[in-house]
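Hi,

Apologies if this is the wrong queue. I'm a grad student, and the batch job for ABC transporter from Chlorobium limicola produced an output file that my downstream script rejects. I'm not sure whether the problem is my script or the file. Here is the sequence I used:
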Amino acid sequence: MKQNLQQFRYETAESLKIALFQIRSNKIRSFLTALGVIIGIVSITMMGTAINGIDMGFEKSLSMIGYDVIYVQKTSWSTMGEWWRYRNRPDLKTEYAEQINRIIADNPATELEIAVPQMSTYQAMATYKDRVLEQIFSLGTNQEYLKTASGDLSAGRFFTPGESAGSEMVCVVGDDIASGLFPNENALGKTISLKNRKFRIVGVFKKQGKFLGLFSFDNQVIMPLGAFEKVYGRKMFVTIRVKIKDEARVGEAKEELLGLMRRIRRIAPGKEENFSINEQKAFKSQLDPIKNGIAAAGIFITGMSLFVGAIGIMNITFVSVRERTREIGLRKALGAKRKTILLQFLIESVMICLLGGLIGLVTALLITFTIEKAIPDFPVQFSFTLVFASLGVSVLTGIISGLAPAVNASKLDPADSLRYE
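Support response: The file is valid. Your script probably expects a header line. Output copied below for reference.
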């Protein structure tokens, strides 16, 4: 048993040396042979990188809107493009938050913790002296807003209950607002203009980034609800943000809130709701088709590339067997066994695929690095799992494509092989 193991190790080592010699002797042919594998490995690696990046960016974005927050709105996130389904619904009122909070206070067994009103508009413009920022997100709320939001302050404070109740003209701004209007100054205490109304900055949020690469949380101005209504009026988009006690029981919390809102809006039993309760699951259901599409396209391209590569490697290995027929006959005449010849050509095939896989991995890594540098917000995530998967696919391709030629070489007759010209 030990002798057989030593013999196998020796034969494997010799086969590796012969394989490397053949690859070095035919560099261009070996590279062209492995090109299909290289393209396939780049495809499967970039597909996995894109999916990992989407997952990472999606989870980061979901943490911005809160895992333990659900939203009462006029429209549904799961069918955002179908505006005609919701246009006739009555608008929400900010007073609903206060009514929900009163019901929560009277129910010790509730799944809900607090409701916070919010009005918002995307069409705002902020100015300071001769500096102007357009298309900012302006939001009106109360002093409890931070209980339902993930952002932290880098400087200053949030507005107080007194400022909220008195509709004081104060605001808290995102990082892009602070750096855009005050590139070389401290934004705290400065006064900005929103529709010719003056607001004093009392706080600045830490940089948070974009939600799903689209909406930036750093491009917002948050103010007391009454101040917002003074500037923009009451006909703006209303959201009731509701924090729940346990994110693991979001389904139960959603059902409870659904009942509360039907009660508040006096919707008769059996009638359809004229509002929507949104949660993260809506975004996840929209993300899955995108991921599946990327995976399907990647698998198709990878499969075609690896198939073409495997056919090429099989063909070249058959040619190599034909070119080295006399060598095979000589080795058999000197006592080489069939399994030794089979192992030699199988290792050569695997080595070509493995080198192609390594080149593909390096290429994919360079592409990933270039994308990260050129587009910092683009979600890409390279992982060691992809490395092992790619190398495994390379080895498997080498075995499949090299098996038939290796078996053919191992069956050659020594006498006929030595007479081969």
